[in-house]
Design a protein that fits this description.
The chain is mostly beta strands. Helices cover 9% and strands 35% of the residues. The protein contains 2 helices and 8 strands; from the N terminus they run αββββαββββ. The longest helix has 9 residues.
Length: 148
């Protein structure tokens, strides 16, 4: 279940995690999953508003998938067994470098893409016997709010 959320504090929340999975879709409509180390662009400032941008260094195939598909997803796995995954949906586009950001080292064979978040949720599977969360989700979901 996807819960629309405000993204005002997404940058601070992502800082609590060490890495993420990037989920894209190949041209044949099969999923493609890679692990990455997302980096916020300095253009994003402290808050993640509508112009917030995360930079991702990926292979040429992943870049093609990300920039052709309408939506891609970052999933930051929980740091401990009972923790929450941070799932962030967004759109992507190719870039060479981002003005105002530190130079991003892009190794040979890799490409830099920008990821613009459109929604985020903290999620973990419900324990047996769990009815519904406060949001009505059958799993133990927490929307990100301005207090997070």
């Amino acid at each position: 279940m996807s819960i629309p959320v405000e993204l005002a504090h997404l940058r601070a929340k992502t800082a609590e995690y060490t890495w993420a999975y990037l989920l894209t879709v190949r041209p044949d409509a099969t999923p493609h999953l890679v692990s990455i180390s997302p980096q916020w662009s300095d253009q994003s400032g402290d808050d993640a508003g509508s112009d917030a941008m995360i930079l991702l260094c990926v292979s040429a195939g992943t870049a093609r998938n990300a920039t052709v598909g309408a939506t891609i997803t970052l999933c930051y796995p929980p740091l401990d067994h009972d923790g929450y995954s941070l799932i962030v949906d967004g759109t992507a586009g190719a870039v060479d470098q981002v003005e105002g950001s530190p130079s991003v080292d892009v190794p040979d064979g890799k490409q830099l893409i920008r990821f613009s978040p459109t929604g985020a949720v903290l999620h973990r599977s419900a324990t047996p016997g769990f009815a519904n969360s406060a949001t009505g989700c059958a799993n133990d979901c927490l929307p990100l709010t301005a207090q997070d």
